[in-house]
Design a protein that fits this description.
The protein is globular and about 50 Å long. Helix 5 runs parallel beside helix 7. It is of the alpha/beta class. The protein has a 6-stranded parallel β-sheet with strand order 2-3-4-5-6-7. A 3-stranded parallel β-sheet has the order 8-1-9. It is built from 13 helices and 9 strands. Helix content is 40%, strand content 13%.
């Protein structure tokens, strides 16, 4: 398997009908770099308020029927603490772009977690911010940041987002994050409205330029109350092919088997691991608000368990030939 596929080869691989050789090549590379280890991240969806109006997203500002919630700083820190007790060594703080959580608040939460658990990594997934804010978060102890680019094609980006947003700003944010020293995550949806095969190739080429530590992809899922509610969902098979392609092109990368994949394919999480993913994100969001973090319809989640290494998730992962480890799961050298 050529690890530097040309555009034509990429398109062939993305649409491959018999993916077994692609899967085998990806699995081999993943094992060479990461063995059978699967890293777990405790996901806290701490606010569904969002100032943005992305056309695909269920918590877009304009989706008025959505009941909005915010967790308090104390609640978030307590949830992270419980996650640590379950064996999680990375906490992901994810939320809409919610101005109520200013930089001071985000930094207090990061420090609140790091003071008690210095060996725990904190990942942020809170959108586009000024560079000074990113610096403050890094200094407060956050070490990773997820910001999907969503699509690397200018015209496609404009079809998915309101005029107030721009691909150039998103790319600038990603470069700023890398420059500051964050392990940075980018990614895109598979099968989002208007997406072409050429767009997907552009996404892969953009990632080659960025060399992110983490790459998250998942199928687009239409969501009630959004302009795209009647659009078809993205293909899970194509998503799995792309996970394998990502593993081959970025052997070092931390690649999650995402909730979106698990939501549209019953055994999506395991198929994702077999295709080359090496990260899972159990959901720590309190059950009473979890359903309100409805970025897309019928969103499933990996349930939290008493222990990440001993429970039904751990068993499932083991039965697929991999094993969940209690580890921060930092990226292994970017090469
Ligand atoms: N379908 C699939 N993924 C979605 N996301 C947002 N809305 C949807 C949707 N309707 C993804 C985006 C975002 C991440 C948090 O969730 O890629 O970056």
């Amino acid at each position: 398997m050529n690890i530097f596929p040309d555009d034509k080869e990429l398109k062939r691989l993305i649409t491959l009908d018999d993916p077994s050789p692609l899967r085998a090549a990806a699995d081999k590379l993943r094992r060479e770099r990461y063995g059978t280890d699967v890293y777990v991240r405790g996901l806290i969806e701490f606010t569904n308020h969002c100032r943005n109006n992305c056309r695909y997203c269920g918590i877009r500002a304009g989706n008025n029927p959505v009941r909005r919630y915010r967790l308090s700083e104390e609640e978030i820190i307590a949830i992270a603490d419980k996650g640590y007790g379950q064996g999680l060594r990375t906490i992901v703080l994810q939320g809409g772009e919610d101005p109520a959580f200013d930089d001071g608040s985000i930094c207090r939460i990061i420090k609140g977690i790091k003071d008690v658990h210095p060996d725990c990594a904190v990942t942020l997934s809170i959108g586009e911010k000024p560079e000074v804010s990113y610096r403050k978060y890094f200094e407060a102890g956050a070490s990773r940041y997820l910001l999907r680019h969503e699509t690397a094609d200018e015209a496609h980006y404009r079809k998915l987002h309101p005029d107030s947003m721009s691909l150039s700003n998103r790319k600038q944010c990603l470069h700023n994050l890398k420059e500051i020293g964050f392990q940075t995550g980018a990614g895109f949806m598979v099968g989002s409205p208007f997406q072409t095969l050429d767009n997907l190739v552009e996404d892969l080429r953009f990632l080659q330029g960025l060399q992110p530590a983490m790459i998250g992809i998942g199928p687009f899922i239409p969501t009630k109350g959004t302009p795209f509610e009647n659009e078809p969902h993205g293909s899970p098979e194509m998503t799995l092919n792309l996970i394998s392609i990502l593993r081959i092109m970025f052997p070092y990368a931390l690649i999650p088997a995402t909730t979106a994949l698990g939501s549209i394919l019953p055994d999506g999480i395991i198929l994702g691991l077999k295709a080359g993913a090496n990260v899972l994100m159990p959901n720590l969001t309190p059950p009473d608000v979890r359903k309100l973090y409805s970025i897309y319809d019928n969103k499933s989640s990996i349930k939290e368990e008493a222990s990440v290494t001993d429970g039904s998730l751990a068993k499932l992962v083991r039965s697929a030939g991999y094993g969940i480890v209690v580890d921060r799961g930092d990226v292994k050298a970017l090469s």
